[in-house]
Amino acid sequence: MSEAARETARFAALAEQSNVGPHTLDQLQADIRRVVTTYPSRPIEPLFHEVRELRDRAFNLLEGRQAPHHTRDLYLAAGLLCGVLANASFDLNRYHEAETQARAAFLCGELAGHNGLRAWLRGLQSLIAYWDGRPRDAVQLAHAGMEFVPENGTAHIRLASISARAWGQLGHRTEALAALRQADEHRERLTPDIEHDDPGGMMSFPLAKQHLYAGTTHLWLRDPTSLTHAKEAANQAIQLYQADPPERRRLGELALARVDLAQVHLATGDLDAAADQGHTVLGLAATRRTESIDKGLDRLARHLNEGPAATSPTAIGLREAITHHRARALPPGETT
What InterPro entries would the database entry show (predicted)? Predict the structure, then answer.
């Protein structure tokens, strides 16, 4: 019996050992909050390498021994960081790598048992499908994300808004408008105790972004009433984004709202206003360039080429500026 007691004591001593203390987790969580807060306004390539180092730190800690509740916290941290890498990979036009990172992030969310992260990641996977020209997959992934009720925050508003854009891309007016109403209903149900996303930043879905997605949805539908709604929503998004302090302004999303506004102006015959918005977007893209901005500019260039003013100096000048912008490759992020 004495030997059995000594064996139990050795096990207890081993179980008590941990490579994670309160300071380690606090520092990792603080680094994650800083990254997700600054992501929407920073150049992506240098941030990618910083996040990769943080992910490796989380992975290394998970290979050690810690208490089960610390293991869950580390899986959540690893999932968030893989999610940021997935988003960055997509922004750098690396769809395959983005999907790989997103799948690993979702696995971490499963192991952490965190619905908010799982819902956010299904939304990211849906966005990747949307921009990859797979709107039906985008709808299915957004609906799959709705299965996870987040602990708090705006994940379901985001999923409904993503679904609306995908339905709009498919030309399904009824479903698109229903998804926009669903997003509004989720927004109305937010209360002060659950409205904040954790860790916030790029993981949150502010009202400006909801207006942006609504505007894009109406733009896909393209009838006169929808174009009026698209213009209103894009202007609302721009006003809200510009109201943010410069250091927190979401430059990529602001650029996308301006791309949509340019498309509305072009569709309604105001070429000069479309060109003003297009050149403003090119200025923003010089600071923070992403794959979605480039694709938005590509659509604008195609519509410039198809319209009655295609041979006007204004249209030619904007098309040439977009072509010059596209000739400069996206930063070659190493997306592993």
Answer: TPR-like_helical_dom_sf
Residue-wise DSSP of 99-113: HHHHHHHHHHHHHHT
**pLDDT beyond 60 at 264:** yes
* Burial zone of 73 (CB within 10 Å; 0-12 exposed, 13-18 middle, 19+ buried): buried
Q: What is the 8-class DSSP label of residue 329?
A: P
pLDDT above 80: residue 151: yes
| Of residues 274, 264, 155, the one with CA closest to residue 206 | 155
Same-domain status, 188 and 218: no
**Domain span including residue 216:** 207-336
Cβ-contact 57, 300 below 8 angstroms: no
Count the domains in the chain: 3
Q: What is the pLDDT of residues 77-124, one digit of tens each?
A: 999 999 999 999 999 999 999 999 999 999 999 999 999 999 999 999
Cβ pair 242, 235 in contact under 8 A: no
Q: Which long-range contacts (CB under 8 A, 24 or more apart) does 146-152 make?
A: 146/119, 148/115, 148/116, 148/118, 148/119, 148/122, 149/115, 149/119, 150/115, 150/116, 150/119, 150/120, 151/114, 151/115, 151/116, 151/198, 152/116, 152/193, 152/194, 152/195, 152/196, 152/197, 152/198
Question: What CA–CA distance (Å, rounded) separates 212 from 180?
Answer: 12
What pTM, to 2 d.p., does this model score?
0.91
E strand map for 266-325: none
User: Do residues 217 and 236 make contact, with C-beta atoms less than 8 angstroms apart?
Assistant: no
At 215, list the tokens.
């505007």
- Of 40, 56, 93, 170, which Cα lies nearest the Cα of 326? 93
The answer to whether residue 125 is domain-embedded is: no
Q: Say what angle helices 68-91 and 95-112 make with each other, to 10 degrees.
A: 160
104 and 140 housed in the same domain: no
